Q: What sequence folds into this?
């Protein structure tokens, strides 16, 4: 498999947000798996320094890395409130992370999100929660970017939406002969942002020069 194949998702439609989950998170099974992993690495899981590792890892994955599976993007965004303003709304620098399905390591960065209200406005914190609900899963950066833009149209009734994510992919940074400063930038435009070039230009100008801190 080439480097491109390793770090890019296969072509084809993606429904929902991220890799779908077939069942509920199993905390006991997860901790057993972590202990088995440690043992497979030649590390005793019941020593002084490793005794609570399985629990700590499980809490991190269950509550943070994969916490989006417990969130409905529509509920995270909420209904907003009626308002006839139609001006572009831009939120820059929303912290994002997800988990690469190929190597099971996180990627992190920032998302810049914009929408054109279609009769409703949404709280900025609600939009950040929408990003969390979509991103905190097994997913690809490309999918996350598109899912965020599409969700603002579907659940937020926006006339148009845009999303840019700039992130550090740990699976890429850990590769051979890497400098350690690679960034991946993905962008998605939906609704009027797809058909009106000047809106894309305004959005890109508004977020120019913003990246991970």
A:
């Amino acid at each position: 498999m080439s480097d491109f194949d390793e770090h890019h998702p296969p072509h084809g439609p993606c429904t929902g947000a991220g890799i779908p989950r077939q069942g509920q998170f199993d905390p006991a099974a997860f901790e057993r798996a972590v202990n088995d992993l440690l043992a497979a690495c030649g590390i005793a899981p019941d020593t002084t320094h490793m005794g609570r590792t399985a629990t700590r890892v499980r809490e991190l994955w269950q509550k943070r890395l994969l916490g989006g599976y417990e969130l409905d993007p529509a509920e995270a965004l909420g209904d907003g409130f009626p308002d006839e303003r139609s001006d572009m709304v831009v939120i820059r620098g929303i912290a994002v992370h997800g988990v690469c399905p190929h190597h099971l390591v996180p990627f992190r960065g920032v998302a810049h999100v914009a929408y054109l209200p279609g009769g409703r406005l949404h709280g900025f914190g609600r939009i950040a929660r929408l990003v969390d609900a979509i991103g905190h899963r097994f997913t690809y950066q490309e999918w996350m970017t598109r899912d965020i833009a599409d969700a603002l149209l579907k659940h937020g009734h926006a006339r148009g939406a845009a999303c840019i994510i700039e992130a550090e992919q740990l699976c890429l940074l850990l590769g051979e002969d890497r400098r350690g400063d690679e960034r991946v930038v993905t962008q998605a435009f939906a609704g009027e942002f797809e058909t009106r070039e000047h809106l894309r230009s305004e959005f890109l100008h508004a977020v120019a020069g913003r990246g991970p801190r």
Q: What stands out?
A: The chain is about 40% helix and 20% strand. Confidence is low (pLDDT under 50) at residues 1-15.
